[in-house]
Amino acid sequence: MIDETDRRILRAIQGEGRITNQELAARCGLSASACFDRLRKLREQGYITGFAALLDPVKLDRALLMFIEVLLDRTTGDVFQDFAAAVSNLPEILECHMVAGGFDYLIKVRVRDMAAYRAFLADTLVQMPGVRETRTYAVLDEVKNVTALPI
């Protein structure tokens, strides 16, 4: 279980992952060694799973964001496994979630433009194991896009 001091540490590093231990300690009201120990324990206990740089998709030629509902032809263990394995090898797919409801998976895709999306859809997505039907939703405006968890 974590306490409020741990939560302060987690909030701080979510906002600024490259913060120095000295600055983190000062913001959280800890000594540098106590902060370092707490951070190490949070990593060891799995509260912190990694650190990453957030990149600008427009500058990296991945401006078009799409969400796609995927309905499989069968909902059996082997079809789920085959689909999940295929998804894991596709860099265009940023997220893939198995969901309950009227379809089986919701995936988040970033590509260069609509032509690249059409090619991805025709050459890759509909060819994946078990895919029966897809529905695509193009994002017109990213109203909110955060990576920080509310803690």
Short description:
The protein is an alpha+beta fold and 151 residues long. It contains five helices and four strands, in the order H-H-H-E-H-E-E-H-E.
Describe the structure.
This protein is 36% helix and 20% strand. It folds into 2 domains: 41 residues, Arc Repressor Mutant, subunit A (Orthogonal Bundle), CATH 1.10.10; 75 residues, Lrp/AsnC effector binding domain/regulation of amino acid metabolism (RAM) domain (Alpha-Beta Plaits, 2-Layer Sandwich). The model has no long low-confidence stretch (mean pLDDT 96). By secondary structure, it is of the alpha+beta class. α2 crosses α3. The chain has a 4-stranded antiparallel beta sheet with strand order 2-3-1-4. One of its GO terms (cellular component) is cytosol. GO terms for molecular function: sequence-specific DNA binding. It comes from Edaphosphingomonas haloaromaticamans.
How does the SSE layout of this entry go?
Blueprint (H helix, E strand, L loop, with lengths): L3 H12 L5 H8 L3 H13 L19 E9 L4 H12 L4 E6 L6 E7 L2 H10 L7 E8 L13
Antiparallel strand pairs: 1-3, 1-4, 2-3
